[in-house]
Amino acid sequence: MAFTEFRPLDEKSLIEYIKAVPFLYSKLGSDLKVKEVGDGNLNFVYIVISHARYFVMKQALPYMRCIGESWSMTKERAYFEAVALTELGRLSLEHVPKVCHFDLTMSLIGMHYLEPPHIIVKKGLIAGIEYPLLAEHVKIRCKDTLFHIPPLSFHHGAQTFAEFCGNMELCRLTEQVVFSDPSKVSQYNHWTSPYLDRDAEALREGNVLKLEVAELKSKFCERDQALLHGDLHTSSVMVTHESTQVLDPDFAFYWPMGFDIGAFLGNLILAFFFAQDGHADQVNDRKTYKEWILRTIEDTWNLFNKKFIALWDEHKDGSGEAYLPAIYNNPELQQLVQKKFMEDLFHYTLGFGAAKMIRRIVDVAHVEDFESITDASRRADCGHRALEVAKLLLKERRKFHAITELFQPFKNSS
Ligand code: ADP
Fold first, then answer.
1. 40 Cβ below 6 A of ligand 1
2. How confident is the model at residue 208 (pLDDT cuts 50, 70, 90)?
């Protein structure tokens, strides 16, 4: 019989659990090995090895893993992660691991194992590995999931929308850690001190910066545009040279669509700075790799932009309400409307991306590309330059019209 009450699992009790669940037992058998491999901030991830196959079980405990019990957090996040994996998998099947089991009482998800050589993108970035299809796959995944928004097409149902309104606690947490904590004194904020003390203080004291963050936060809270992954950074994506898989959507919610693409691009921008100096050595100065990161940033946005417009053209006589064919009834007007829509999206993408960059340097949850630079002053130097670029993007984002225009400021500060 399955466990009737919640209890935190470990490698041993997970085997008891599997034996008690007929579906899992029939799939995996009784000769099992389990290894906990979680390296994220929140949850526990177990690889289950049976004679014939590998399987992943992921459990949410009622607190944040990287802090411990002092930062309590709803374990219902596992429910939203399971629903989001299923829904995002429905929209973009090839790019999401399949969920095979979910236990609400235990806050436990069972899903397909992404076999080696799948690796978390962030680890690939630290190792300096190029993934030629990454931008193309992220574009496919973004356009598959983001195009289905009410103004343009009515593909998502009211039921899915209502479902995700329940993920309020993680929604509030995102508002807090991305938009509020970096601008104030907050218990778990930390940075490479004392080197970045002045930078952290500048974030708390900059009026212009705070005005920009306020605008982004307000847009973020007010606009339920599309079902987003909610935390689409480079540790939420596993890759090989041929495959790109998106994991870990426990923050899924209806938000402005620039937030997902911005998070991904913001993390690549961070990687650009860290790849350059933080991980360069005498054997490899990372210059060629840096160029690949810039190309991936450029391709991700440009491919997405192009495909999104193509889909819009294809569906222009469809059921979307915002741009009725009876009103937007000539190609010139249609083009103007699309240009304005995509330009706004671009500016919000840059703003959200910059906010995500800042939080990863000064708030509770940092990024491995940064933390794995062992020399503190070198790490701080990378962090300082990344913060300067993020601040510039926040303040000046409306002046940029094409993704390549960003690269000069990047190069100037590197
Ligand atoms: P968290 O919610 O704590 O951030 P993640 O979902 O990011 O946890 O998973 C943590 C780690 O577990 C990942 O970095 C990855 O190495 C591994 N992992 C998670 N899901 C899978 C999977 N389906 N296949 C293979 N490895 C996985």
1. yes
2. very high
Topology at the third CATH level for domain 119-412:
Aminoglycoside 3'-phosphotransferase; Chain: A, domain 2 (3.90.1200)
In tens, the pLDDT along 86-128 reads 988 887 767 899 999 999 999 999 999 999 999 999 999 999 9
Instruction: Identify the bridge partners of residue 359 per DSSP, sorted by sequence position.
Output: none
The rounded distance, in Å, linking the Cα atoms of 382 and 76 is 37
Q: CATH classification of 11-112, choosing from 3.30.200.20, 1.10.287.180, 3.40.30.10, 3.40.50.720?
A: 3.30.200.20
Residue 152 has pLDDT above 70, yes or no: no
In terms of Cα–Cα distance, which of 190, 199, 210, 195 is closest to 362? 190
Instruction: Quote the DSSP letter at residue 274.
Output: I
State yes or no: ipTM above 0.90: yes
Lowest mean pLDDT among 153-162, 237-246, 268-277: 153-162
Our answer on whether the CB atom of 41 is closer than 6 Å to any ligand 1 atom is yes
First-residue to last-residue Cα distance in the chain: 59
Mutate to test the pocket of ligand 1, among 247, 248, 366, 369 (most ligand atoms within 8 A of CB): 247
- Centroid of ligand 1 to alpha carbon of 132 (angstroms): 22
Taking CA 95 as the corner, what is the angle to CA 94 and CA 97, rounded to the nearest 5 degrees? 95
Rounded to whole angstroms, the maximal C-alpha distance in the chain is 66
Q: Is the pLDDT of residue 202 over 60?
A: yes
- Write the residue with the smallest CA distance to atom 6 of ligand 1: 248
Give distance in angstroms: CA of 93 to centre of ligand 1: 18
User: Which residue's CA is the nearest one to ligand 1's atom 11?
Assistant: 38
Ligand 1 contacts CB of residue 59 (under 6 A): no
Rounded-to-integer distance, Cα 336 and Cα 138, Å: 26
How far away, in angstroms, is 375 Cα from ligand 1 center?
Answer: 28
Q: Is 248 in the pocket of ligand 1 (CB under 6 A)?
A: yes
